[in-house]
Amino acid sequence: MVPTSSTPSRMLHQYVCQFGQKLVRRRSLEPRDGSEGRMARCLNTLDLVSLGVGSTLGAGVYILAGAVAKDIAGPSIVLCFLVAALSSVLSGLCYAEFGARVPCSGSAYLYSYVTVGQLCAFITGWNLILSYIIGTASVARAWSSAFDSLIGNHISQVFKETFSPHVPHFLAKYPDFFALGLVLLLTGVLVLGARESALVTKVFTAINLLVLSFIILSGFIKGDLHNWQLTEQDYKLATAGSNDTSSLGPLGSGGFVPFGFGGIFHGAATCFFGFIGFDVIATTGEEARNPQRSIPLGIVISLFICFLAYFGVSATLTLMVPYYQIHPNSPLPQAFLQVGWDPARYVVAVGTLCALTSSLLGAMFPMPRVIYAMAEDGLLFRGLARIHARTRTPIMATLASGTLAGVMALLFELTDLVDLMSIGTLLAYSLVSFSVLVLRYQPDQNFSKKKTKEETEMDPVVEESPLESSLLDPISTTPTLKSGQIVYGCAFLLVLLLTILSLLLALWPSQVFSGDPGFTAGAVLLLLLIAGITVIIWRQPQNPSPLHFRVPALPVLPVLSIFVNVYLMMQMSSVTWAQFGVWMVIGFAIYFGYGIRHSLEENSDQEPPTSTSQALDKNPRSAKSA
């Protein structure tokens, strides 16, 4: 047969379709054969809570409250932390449901893989790795700097005198060998085992909480409620009667909310980043003794403890010192000095070092587990998935990630990369919320498992009447294939509309809220469309499968979570987005050059189906008995 002229175009079309299918192929929710039991299940709920609190409640609790209270919110910083905590809970609850649903390592990477597809999963995991590496290196340098200041800056002086001061602007002023040694030391702790790592974290987190409790109690004793009711007369008295109060910085209008509600929301956006870190708990799926119960409990309890600590410290600080006199770089030591408790600053120093230590371990703990999960799936180099026979930890991923983070802590100035770390974390939060939104409305928990043609033909045919496929009034009380597809389409459209709304609010907030006809009408139209699509999703039947934890108020809560995360991402500068683009180019080179060809899903696609494998796919729980 002579090929027609349309044959090349059909072949090209077929190739493009097959390539596109590879990008969106999804993992099964069931653990892979042989993967379960490779890592030691040794962590209880208390271990997970200590990991979550230690990772989240770092040095920010000693610094962040002062910076926000002085120039942004004043005494109303306590409300800033309340709003930020509620916003963080939106993402935390979504993580909690997936932790109960998928007891495996990988966190947001795995959740994206079973819901959205392989390419999105790789992007999520790749950016999580970046976030953890930058977080580890920056906390290590902060630990080194804090310790150095306690001993009179002798370490930095020696390094500055030893090494040349002429370095590129993106490198640190001097190589921080102390930070490198600290990262390598904790890498050794992680190699010893998850139980040992959790024990070290518990010790330092407990000391940190004791110090914070002392700060809160002593602050309430020495505090003055009048500092929440300041007036213009107080400002004049602070400058010895002078009318020039410019030296005090922005003052606002006085009272409890000196900068208005705008200050509260601006401060809440800054305080939100103080709650980042709880997602470390979601990476312990293969090491928790009872992950379906421990992971949701650990996330909720750790966020609650962190909120109490932030709330208490910010209240204490603004009660002890008028907000305009707070020292932004060392607020608590200066506050105790002002109220006559100078020795308390040594207690604060101990708490700061303990907080930094637990935060450093919290940043390092999930990093190799995400790398291990991606390598086990074949998206990263398979050698990184090696598990140590005795300690049952991902040893190659731990050594590789620890070494890379240590080198970054040694050489680079990381201040400009903190926002880049935030993009990766917020992207992961958004994808987890999206995944919860979609997965609850699918016909069964194994909807992502690819079926063969023979299996599809064996499935019972469920005919849907026009009423059953209605968007707003489905008759079926359980999810169908069509209702699941409707939710998928609506969820993707929601993300697009929320992104446009976030851009509008981030770039032109004054025009939107000042009543500008074009901008205000556009924002209202977007809100109406978002509300309408949310109602359509709400009307679809949910999967009744029992779970240890389920996100309440679906679909509203995940939609709010996506909006908060996307809006915060839109606050990042163009330079940060350019750096993000460079990192993604490196990631795509790895994925398209290696991962897409070595993925286990690629291998399973090429295996010819057998009757046995089809039967096991029909009933995955029978795989072990088979």
Helix/strand layout:
Layout: H1 7-24, H2 45-56, H3 60-73, H4 77-101, H5 108-115, H6 118-150, H7 154-162, H8 177-192, H9 194-222, H10 232-238, H11 260-271, H12 291-320, H13 331-338, H14 344-364, H15 366-376, H16 395-411, H17 418-439, H18 453-458, H19 481-507, H20 509-513, H21 517-539, H22 556-569, H23 574-598, H24 600-606, H25 611-618
Helix pairs in contact: 2-9, 2-12, 2-14, 3-11, 3-12, 4-11, 4-12, 4-17, 4-22, 5-6, 5-17, 6-8, 6-14, 6-15, 6-16, 6-17, 6-23, 8-9, 8-16, 9-12, 9-14, 13-14, 15-16, 17-19, 17-22, 19-21, 19-22
Q: Quick summary of this structure?
A:
The protein has a domain at 67-437: Up-down Bundle (Amino acid/polyamine transporter I), CATH 1.20.1740.
Account of the protein in words:
The chain is mainly α. The chain has a domain of about 375 residues: Amino acid/polyamine transporter I, CATH 1.20.1740.10. Helix content is about 65%, strand content about 0%. It has 25 helices and no strands. It is globular. About 45% of the residues are buried. It holds the Pfam family AA_permease_2. Belongs to the amino acid-polyamine-organocation (APC) superfamily. Cationic amino acid transporter (CAT) (TC 2.A.3.3) family. It catalyses: L-arginine(in) = L-arginine(out); L-lysine(in) = L-lysine(out); L-ornithine(in) = L-ornithine(out). It is a multi-pass membrane protein. One of its GO terms (cellular component) is plasma membrane.
Main attributes of the structure:
626 residues; mainly alpha; Amino acid/polyamine transporter I; 65% helix; 0% strand; disordered C terminus; transmembrane; glycoprotein
